[in-house]
Amino acid sequence: MKSEIKIFLAAPRGFCAGVERAIEIVNQAIKKYGTPVYVRHEIVHNKHVVETLKSKGAIFVEELSEIEDKTRPVIFSAHGVPKKVPEEAKLNNLTFVDATCPLVSKVHRESEQNFRKGYDIILIGHKNHPEVVGTMGQLPEKAITLVETVGDVKNLKKEKFKKNLSYITQTTLSLDDTTEIIGELKKKFPMIKGPVKEDICYATTNRQLAVKKIAPNCDMFFIIGSRNSSNSLRLVEVAKKAGCQKSELIHHGKELPFDKIEKCKTIGISSGASAPEILVNELMKKIKAKFEIKIEEVKVAEEKVVFKLPKELN
């Protein structure tokens, strides 16, 4: 007889509106322009999504200089790009479509507005993440100072900054960690100006809240997502912090640790904002093949956000 495992399924999970829009932009561009279409950087951080789009005729490149056929259109990924990228595209007469998530574009606009008003800007984010590279690339070099940790804030030299100081954040950070960093910034710079509406996006927030709610009841927690997906990695951290130490990222090609699962009575499952639901179903199917499973979906929010496609594709 199969032993029974209870699965707590986090909701919301998986695709957010920005990811759905970015994938649809590639699909619609293929429909409108034919194949191939180029995509600068992975459109979203998920191997399954990238491979599916490749099979339809998308070619992924890291830089515009890698585009062999300059008559073909190029799409900029959901993470956003530095200003110099569209400028380079124009210089090369490339047709381009920008799939930057509107919530990332909001952070770009904030940084530009603050800069115009004479503010120094601190960005809370992860060094070298494409979103951070894109945000810092909206302004002249050294206009934005990056901090990753509370320690980084403590090491900032007050005299480096003008009286007018503001902060912005990457959209996919851990809520708790970011709250700590913002707290430290406000302690050090009491007059620092924050965004009118916080930068961490609704989808990141909801997915973390759902994981936080379930994690204390779980012997193990699986987050489906890619190793370069910031929001997926944060979900693993959130699950551990919330009380489930045996939390792991299930990425493309990773074998399920059945030896550990055997010792569990309860398992939590969620997926990062760029992971398709098909991967959640596949994971549950694998567990179901070896165990009796009982599923309880735990929903913390209803998501109804939809973003319009760029006008070039409407």
Break the fold down into its secondary structure elements and pairings.
Blueprint lengths: L3 E8 L5 H17 L3 E4 L6 H10 L1 E4 L12 E3 L7 H8 L4 E3 L3 H15 L3 E5 L5 H7 L7 E4 L2 H6 L9 E5 L5 H14 L13 H13 L5 E5 L5 H12 L5 E4 L7 H4 L4 E6 L5 H14 L1 E8 L15
Helix pairs in contact: 4-5, 8-9
Structure, explained:
This protein has 314 residues and is α/β, with parallel strands linked by helices. It has 3 domains: 4-15 and 202-299, Cobalt-precorrin-4 Transmethylase, domain 1, CATH 3.40.1010; 17-98, Rossmann fold (3-Layer(aba) Sandwich); 102-200, Cobalt-precorrin-4 Transmethylase, domain 1 (3-Layer(aba) Sandwich), CATH 3.40.1010. It is built from 11 helices and 12 strands. The protein has helices at 17-33, 47-56, 84-91, 102-116, 130-136, 150-155, 175-188, 202-214, 230-241, 258-261, 277-290, and strands at 4-11, 37-40, 58-61, 74-76, 96-98, 120-124, 144-147, 165-169, 220-224, 247-250, 266-271, 292-299. The strands form 3 sheets. The chain has a 5-stranded parallel β-sheet with strand order 10-9-11-1-12, with helices on both faces. Helix 4 runs parallel beside helix 5 (130-136) and helix 8 packs parallel to helix 9. The longest helix is centred in the first third of the chain and has 17 residues, at 17-33.
